[in-house]
Specification:
This protein has 117 residues and is α+β, with helices and mostly antiparallel strands. The chain has two helices and six strands. The protein is globular.
């Protein structure tokens, strides 16, 4: 299945946080334009800003403390939001980065293993 041109939806409960219009793939990552929805409020934006800041810190400092802080941020995103594929079915787990109007993510129908990230 090709993913270019597909629309993925990010939700918080029934609220639409945004849509990702996929325009590229670099297995296992999909890339696309992020179109914010009505529920992309400052609290949601802060989740993604924090996750990216922690990822950047992790790239500079590969300590266990940095890794654990980043993993907690990713877990919070997964607990707070749901990502649904083009068919409208939510995936079991995902890793999503949003920066400005760009998003890149990977997903799985089953939870990621510790080694899978």
């Amino acid at each position: 299945m090709g993913f270019n041109g597909t629309i993925w939806r990010l939700r918080r409960g029934a609220e639409l946080v945004g849509e990702i219009a996929v325009d590229g793939a670099d297995f296992p990552w999909l890339h696309g334009r992020f179109l914010p929805g009505p529920a992309f409020d400052p609290a949601v934006r802060q989740l993604f800003d924090r996750e990216l800041a922690l990822l950047e810190r992790l790239e500079e400092d590969e300590s266990d403390e940095s890794a654990e802080a980043w993993e907690r941020a990713c877990d919070e995103v997964n607990r707070t939001l749901a990502l649904a594929g083009p068919e409208g079915v939510a995936v079991a787990e995902f890793l999503l980065h949003i920066q400005g109007d760009r998003a890149w993510f990977r997903w799985s129908d089953t939870p990621f293993s510790e080694e899978g990230l």
